Amino acid sequence: MNPTDHFPRLSLGHFPTPIRRLHHLEQALGGGHLLLKRDDLAGFALAGNKTRPLEFLIADATSTGCDVVVGGGAPKSNFIAALAAAASVGGIACELLISGAALVDPPPTLRLAEASGARLTFTGGDREHLDEEIDARASALNRDGHHAYAVPRGGACAVGALGFASGASEIAGQGVPDNATIVLAVGSGSSVAGLNAGRGAIGANWQIIGVSVSRPLEEMRRHVTTLTRACTQLLEVAAPSDAVIVDASVPGMGTTTDAERMIVSLAYESEGLLFDPSYGAKALVEVQRLVRTGFERPIVLWHTGGLPSALSLLTTEKGA
Ligand SMILES: Cc1ncc(COP(=O)(O)O)c(C=O)c1O
């Protein structure tokens, strides 16, 4: 049973994404039972995990008669490039609000968004205020006769969370055992909230550990609980027990620790896998921590993508 089956959905990615055992990394770490869920292979642009919420968000926008989506993020946000690509494929215009000042040398994420035909506006402000600015821009467009669809940062809303609610039934169908622990990085909270809502809807007992990369821990916990409830209300199922959220927000998104560098190199050397510094590296460190505690139950690491910045971690000198 997939609890999201009756919602409009635009097919963008190749699902189910593969799941496989990481024998070589287990050996390198000296233990553990590790499985990798490969949303880095979702097959839509470089969108990784963000392909999932966008299948529901763009379908919701077009099926309700909207003619423009309004979203936003920091310049290096993977989501903005993904949103622009999904809007383009879905045949709807896209406006993006980018935090900070205009850049002389835009990162690949912004260049990709432009290549999809999105209209970019720099707000000059910080990213924390973007959701309000997105709503205000959507209202202004509506006053001008458009039908605008506002998408919060990262697709963190009930409809966006449907993407990972669907992912929950996907991994149940791939045989992930009930005693598994699932580890994934948390930014906007859309993925972990949807996964937990979907887990509840299908009655799976997995433990879910979200590795928070940005907001303060208590704020993130509250935010994820609210988002999970919004998604379960949409699905018309009971709210599940909360996911475990652990803090990986220190020393900050732009800074890579020695531990992150080492485990990312180990994953590349032992399995040929690429992980990005902002999200994947932090989830991997949590997996390593679990293995070191002698954790014996299967651990599913959900690879969320982030390939635009994955190269930088392996190819730049420490401290660069
Ligand atoms: C590569 C990658 N992994 C994980 C995440 C976190 O996902 P979420 O925003 O759904 O919490 C993001 C968010 O942009 C991401 O780009």
TrEMBL record:
Keywords from the named record: Pyridoxal phosphate
Gene3D superfamilies noted in UniProt: 3.40.50.1100
Pfam families tied to this protein: PALP
CC cofactor: pyridoxal 5'-phosphate
Stretches assigned to the Tryptophan synthase beta chain-like PALP domain: 11-305
Any one Gene Ontology molecular-function term assigned to this protein's record: D-cysteine desulfhydrase activity
UniProt keyword annotation of Iron present: no
InterPro entries per the UniProt record, alphabetical: ACCD_DCysDesulf (IPR027278), TrpB-like_PALP (IPR001926), TrpB-like_PALP_sf (IPR036052)
Family designation: Belongs to the ACC deaminase/D-cysteine desulfhydrase family.
The protein's name: Unannotated protein
